[in-house]
Amino acid sequence: MAKRAKRKRKPTASRSRGFRWKSWLVLMLIALLLATSLYLIYLDRIVQLRFDGRRWAVPAQVYGQAQQLAKGVRLDEPGLRQILDRLGYARVKHPDRPGSYSSYRGRFLIRTRAFAFPQGTRDSDYLELKLADSRIISLKQAASGRAIGDYQLEPPLIGSLHPAHSEDRILVKRGELPKQLVSALIAVEDRNFNSHFGIDPIGIARALWSNLRAGGVVQGGSTLTQQLVKNFFLSKERSLTRKLNEALMALLLEYHYSKDEILEAYANEIYLGQEGGRAIHGFGLASQFYFNRPLNELTLAQNALLVALVKGPSAYNPLRHPKRALKRRNLVLQLMAEQELIKEATAQRVAKVPLGIKQGSKRASGYPAFFDLVRRQLRRDYQEADLNAEGLRIFSTLDPQLQRQAEQALSRQLQRLEQRGVAKPRELQGAVVLVESDSGRVSALVGDRNPRFAGFNRALDAIRPVGSLIKPAVYLSALEQDQRFTLLSACRMRRYGSKGRVARFGRRATTTIKITVRCPSTWRWPNPTTWPRCDWGWR
Predict the structure, then answer these.
(1) Can you give the pLDDT at residue 166?
(2) Which listed residue (183, 411, 468, 489) is catalytic?
(3) Fewest Cβ atoms nearer than 10 Å: which of 39, 76, 149, 266?
(4) Which is the catalytic residue, given 167, 189, 264, 407?
(5) Lowest mean pLDDT among 13-17, 97-101, 524-528
(6) Which long-range contacts (CB under 8 A, 24 or more apart) does 263-266 make?
(7) How confident is the model at residue 7 (pLDDT cuts 50, 70, 90)?
(8) Residue 294: which H helix or E strand, with range?
């Protein structure tokens, strides 16, 4: 019996649907891959443009006059100590590092700091200085004994012009970061920093395990690179999208830039505290803010405290929560010892050291009236954007010693007048301006009875009659015109305008008076006669 021929099966509807589904899946995967690639290109461009451009707006820094040290200069022990304290020098038994000094019975040993003056950079020196009868009687190199003719300490920083967004920082290079600070930071925040590629799966797993064991969040899995991306590129929004962007941008950042470049950016960007409306960013400024010392002069304990603040500047603020900050700092030391970065004995010894906070705020100038004058002149001559972003260094004419003396003199004089019954206690106000007669430089300026008051500046804005201060300008301008005026020239009273005339209190006004009589006396009314007849070359 013949066999039936097999019929060819026609494609079923299910097979057709399966083929179409696979085709759509492939197309969707291709579209997703294309979209992901375009998105990565977009993120990559953001990373490179921002990281290669100007990363931070750095405020302009304003300095006062540097203290001149030379044999014969008037200076007493309290005054010199105040100058050194103002500059953040540490008083120690044996000054073995820059920014330290010792003193005993008029003999000072000073390790100065290097400083970039406008004329050039000056290296650190070791000086021996002796005082007697409120004068410098000897100045020489402490090591060699060689006499020094004159020497300038670094000028005091009197204020900064901050950016509009109220962030402040002192930029530091990678090579300027202390080794102890870098070691502590990596030990606490990202121990695999030198080996991972932006994200650390091992660190994430370790953090998850620690959190599960503790029953809460006790450890994070973000790398230093991810933290930098979060602070530098992204908002504070907490979402899955932001976390994904953080990981992708961390990978891109590691691909384009070296570990040193990333670490340098992190050290300048990290938020470490708040002073009023001003945000403290970077280890450089935090060192000045909490310890009033440059970053390269910090001890192991101080470096550990700065690293402790990374976890939470508010929670571990040493000014508000010293016990909490001390505990966190000692944990940093313990982790360094566990990873054999320091010896266990060293960690235990340093853990007993107090926090040593010596706040050196730069938020507001210690000389607000003078700084107001500087600000007005700078805004007259420079663009606002340059002052707030270019990191200019401005050397002013303020003499801190004369400024202190002017403040004290004004306070004493006002108190003396009030004690005589001229006014009620603390009712009088005043201002002081000290100007160098030969150069016209303003050496000191006080704008209020309270020299730290940053409000109305009486020295610049108060409208007052100048009185006899106008005499030298009028008379010298007149005497320069020797064909018209001499010391014996007589001027007659004339009336200008209709608002009355000036007469000396308690005396009858005469119609004629000679210049030789007018100048040393308090006669004022003939000045309007001489004034309009003078050829003012500067008016």
Answers:
(1) 60
(2) 468
(3) 149
(4) 189
(5) 524-528
(6) 263/174, 263/177, 263/182, 263/193, 263/224, 264/172, 264/173, 264/174, 264/177, 265/51, 265/55, 265/228, 265/232, 266/224, 266/227, 266/228
(7) low
(8) none
**Tokens 């608002």 sit on residue:** 499
Query: Is the pLDDT reported for residue 164 higher than 60?
Result: no
Phi, psi of 89 (to 5 degrees): -75, 140
* CATH dotted code for 66-154: 3.30.2060.10
In angstroms, how far is CA 186 from the centroid of its own chain? 26
Q: Any idea what DSSP says for residue 443?
A: E
Quick one: pLDDT at residue 72?
Answer: 93
Domain boundaries, the chain: 66-154, 167-351, 469-533
Please indicate whether the domains covering 66-154 and 167-351 agree at the CATH topology level: no
Does residue 189 have an active-site annotation?
yes
As a whole number, mean pLDDT of residues 41-55 equals 83
Indicate the SS3 state at residue 259.
Answer: helix
From CA 397, how far away is CA 443, in angstroms rounded?
6
Question: Phi, psi (5° rounding) for residue 41?
Answer: -65, -40
468 annotated active-site:
yes
**Average per-residue pLDDT in the chain?**
82
Local structure of 426: helix, strand or coil? coil
Rounded to two decimals, the pTM is 0.71
